[in-house]
Fold each of these.
Amino acid sequence: TLFPSTTLFRSGSLGRLVPVKDFHTPVAALSQLITDGGDVHLLLVGDGPDRDALIEQARTAGVAERLHLVGQQQNIAPWLAVMDLYVNTSLSEGMSQAILEAMAAGLPCVATDVEGVAELITDGETGLLVERGDPPALAEQIERLLTDASLESRVAAAGQARVRERYTWEATIRGFESVWDELLQQRLHQMQNDRSQKGNDQ
């Protein structure tokens, strides 16, 4: 195996424990990572109706001691701080606030290639993408990040830079200003056309 023998890795995710988030996939991937020799733990921050089923899945797979369900948390920053990478396995997703927060915190991200996520993550550049509901593929991408320090640091830095560039409040304001400028220019152009048309009519 490529995993360092004495290193503990923590993958994690934020969100409601509900079917659309598909946390069963990272639990299944965790089992694969353990089989491959990794000392990997999965930290889930959130609560919901899938909690008991996830616990049972982990118990059946023999990874119960590596699955950590900490419930709903008001302050997520300390939990992001103890993660080595962030995982998002949603079956569908809009603009994910959780991914934004993880990227802003400097975490490398592995996420499903669904609408909304692709706007944030460019595969191989600002994170890694996998197909939905594919534990082996998820495990493979997690292992890539955890065993390739260069890749991990590169995508983490690029992801953090993308959030700062595009999704901070200042960037949001700049985006609005750009739209306003464009609308103003269109309005001025329309007014000029209207005046020209009026002059021709006279």
Amino acid sequence: PLLVAKMMPVHNGACTLLGLRKSITHSLPYPYSKCQDLARFDSPLYGVFKRMNKTYQQEVCFEMWKQLKTIEECNCSSSRYPRLDTHSSVATCMLDKDLTCSDQVKAKYLTSASSLPECLAMCPLECVSTKYEYSVTQSTFPSYEMFSTLKSNYSTDIVQHFHEVGLLQNDSSAGIEQITYGQMASSMTCLSVYLDSMESVSY
């Protein structure tokens, strides 16, 4: 599916564990719920999903609608939203006035898009939806035990890494024993992504 970008707090000196929770919801269409039977629906933005052969998601459609408003009000497309194949010739917002305009559009529709009839008419709620939530935990990285191990049992890759980040002056291991824990931690990070849970709910 098309994705909506979200920022993750990943930084040097820490190991970040990203736990994903996947939920799939199956609902009966209107009048039993507020979702739309997509087999009987069409709109300009829904057409983008069909032409790209992508799974429809209301959340992504909202972002496309904001892109459409950016194009209408700023005459350029924002890099923060998915591009629209119907407006592929529109230039990306690059000039200061364009970026200011796109920021104003973002602020204008940041919380209201999902409740505006104009937006909902083009981006209905799907009856089968997949959502991902995540939790983030962090721990110190590397551990002091790993720090000692890397200094005493270093590999060619580790020496090359320390050379590239400026902790060693050449490709040899000379001086590796002088590297402090703080220096090593500031040049390293780790990220682990795992599926925490998955559930399917029907209404």
